[in-house]
Amino acid sequence: MTRKQQFILILILGALATISPFSIDMYLPGFPSIAEDLKTTIASVQLSLTSYFIGIAAGQMIYGPLLDRFGRKAPLYAGLIIYIFASLGCAFTGSVEALIAMRFLQALGGCAGMVAAQALVRDLFPVDKTAQAFSSMTLVVAVSPMIAPTVGGYMTAAFGWHSVFIVLAVITTLIVVCVYFILPQGRKADPSISLKPRAVVGNFYTVIRQPQFLVYTLAGGLASSAPFAYIAGSADVFMNLYGSSEQEYGWIFAVVAAVMIGSTQLNHVFLKRFKSEQVIRGAFAMQTLVGILLITGTALGGFDKVTLVALIALFMAGHGLINPNATALSLAPFSRHAGSAASLSGSFRMAMGGVASALVSAFHNNTAVPMIAVMVGCSVCGLIFLAVGKFTIRYNARKRDVEEETSVLM
User: Fold this and answer.
1) Among 359, 401, 403, 397, which Cα is nearest to 377's?
2) Measured between alpha carbons, how far is residue 199 from residues 194, 365, 405 in Å?
3) Are 210 and 334 in contact, with CB atoms under 8 Å apart?
4) Measured distance between the N- and C-terminal CA atoms of the chain, rounded to whole angstroms
């Protein structure tokens, strides 16, 4: 595969994985307008974000087995078509309840792109190159929170929030065309993989029994929940508490995303000198230190806008290092069940993200404390789980070695 082919491949895979981040970020500046138009509260509108996370978590459990059984493209097409129609449903909804329901359907369709993109990276790149491939793909994905809220802010101000969902439908239609004409098939259909509930659950159980998958999926999922807490609370914090306009909020989001993009590219440099496990531990430690500053400053009365943005951006830089390495390590042990592993990994992460966003909404108190507390709590819990998980794996390995030596001597 030439470098040009790799570039085009990463670009398309990144676009697939970007569908959901765009869907999450692009309508955030419209929260106040949506609440006013639908005669509801921002806290109620935030539930449409939570329903999206729930839809992604549920949908990925479905697409994993389908991608393994029918190949990568057929389930992908089905999901993206659902997404397009659901996006149009969001655009023309007349109540917050309908918006919440349409966002759930939108997520069920859009998550096909996320699962397929991860599975295709595992299909098309050697195991020792997947971390670099995920970092490159993350670069494409990371551009979405840099562009999406900014574009969404200007679109909401000029054409209304409905236009955001129409544009999402158009963009996804273009992605479908690229997938059809350019993207390789990847792993072919495997008729031996059964879709009966017992067999599907058995495949998932096989994946979950792999300790490396479990540790890095859950630790990485906890770390990934922090950005979702930020997404859920940032519109209220910056637009209502700090008085930012829709356009300024978009630029704030862009600054945070730009720092995250920089950290994903630093990952390429770090991987030349350190193992993925070492990069993850260092990133978690950095997030914890910055998190202490955020919690302390917020509890003592809050930061000015510039300081808060700077610290949040530094905190999110850790996510740019943790996510690609944790994803690569969690999928490394699998080949035949890569689709199921990718779906479980993504489902766990989005479920945790949904919980994080729901907690921000539940503890909403017109301050930045709920958002910051959930962000930092996610990172600290991820670090603790990683440490405990790695210790447990090493302990069980030593225990097995001792038992084997004892059996040999006997």
Assistant:
1) 359
2) 6, 46, 36
3) yes
4) 53
d(CA 213, CA 208): 7
Per-residue pLDDT tens over the stretch 166-221: 999 999 999 999 999 988 887 788 888 777 888 878 878 888 888 888 888 888 88
Sequence length of the chain is 410
Helices and strands (H and E) in the chain: how many: 14, 0
Q: What's the Cα-to-Cα distance from 98 to each of 6, 65, 143, 198, 350, rounded to whole Å?
A: 41, 29, 30, 34, 22
Rg over alpha carbons for the chain, rounded to the nearest Å, is 21
Q: How far is CA 25 from CA 28, 227, 257, in A?
A: 5, 11, 11
| Dihedral of alpha carbons 308, 311, 313, 318, sign | negative
User: How many CA atoms lie within 13 Å of 51's alpha carbon, on the beta-carbon side?
Assistant: 18
DSSP label at 40?
Answer: -
Supply the pTM of this predicted model. 0.68
Per-residue 3-state assignment (H helix, E strand, C coil) for 274-294: CCHHHHHHHHHHHHHHHHHHH
| CA–CA dist 145, 151 (Å, integer) | 10
Q: In which element (H, E) is residue 209 found?
A: none
Rounded CA gap, 21 and 262, in Å? 18
d(CA 315, CA 40): 32
Residues of the chain with pLDDT under 50: none
Phi/psi at 160 (5° precision): 95, 160
The domains found in the chain, sorted by start residue, are 3-182+197-409 (1.20.1250.20)
Nearest Cα to 65, choosing from 213, 181, 205, 221? 205
Task: Tell me what pLDDT residue 174 has.
Answer: 95
